[in-house]
Amino acid sequence: MKYFDESRGGFWYSSKYRPLMNTLLHMAKMEPIEGAELYKGRPQLLVMAAAIGLTKGIREPVDSGGKNRNDVFIGGWNSGTFHGQSLSFWAALIVWLEEGDDEALMLKPENDPELLEKFNLLAMGGLSYLNKKQFS
Predict the structure, then answer these.
(1) Which of 70, 49, 71 is nearest to 60 (CA)?
(2) What DSSP designation does 62 have?
């Protein structure tokens, strides 16, 4: 399902988590780690991280500034799946579960900025949690 077009979508991650992400998925321009191909791509990794952020109740803003954050290629997001469902479905479900009511954001273009912001907060929270577990 291609929900996000090229002008919409804003999935980001903080660059400080690249070493952690490299342990779960080989990141470009980083030394490969044996056995690090646990996820097909960055979008799937961010879905897992957002689920962890949700369950642990951790939210963290994406770092600002050009070198402090990276975007996720929207084509990879649109064409990817996680357990047979589109990644857009997972993003909306995770945000809906966080909201916990009928007023939660659904997949409508007018809701994209808020949905993406909430998803990114949860994904960074999950990466923060995993980073502490991995490197502390």
Answers:
(1) 49
(2) P
